[in-house]
Write the structure tokens for this entry.
Amino acid sequence: MDVGLSTMTRWVKQLRDERQGKTPKASPITPEQIEIRELRKKLQRIEMENEILKKATVDSIGQRNSYVKTWGCGGFLNETNIYSRGKSLCF
């Protein structure tokens, strides 16, 4: 096996980290690691959506909340554009 010492050391460290449950910084090696990375991204997006919905329920000035309109547009808009002259930009 013609492998350099630094490469072997890096592999050993990566294996130890993976066995301790740490996420590898390099690209995923196994299909399980790829699935875990995708599931973590999905979870992060769902948590963000949940946070937006929580903030959307709080409406202290009687207007539609910017988070609701932003989500309804399917993208993020500047808040000043959402309330411009009472026009609905998205719906």
User: Anything to note?
Assistant: The radius of gyration is 23 Å.
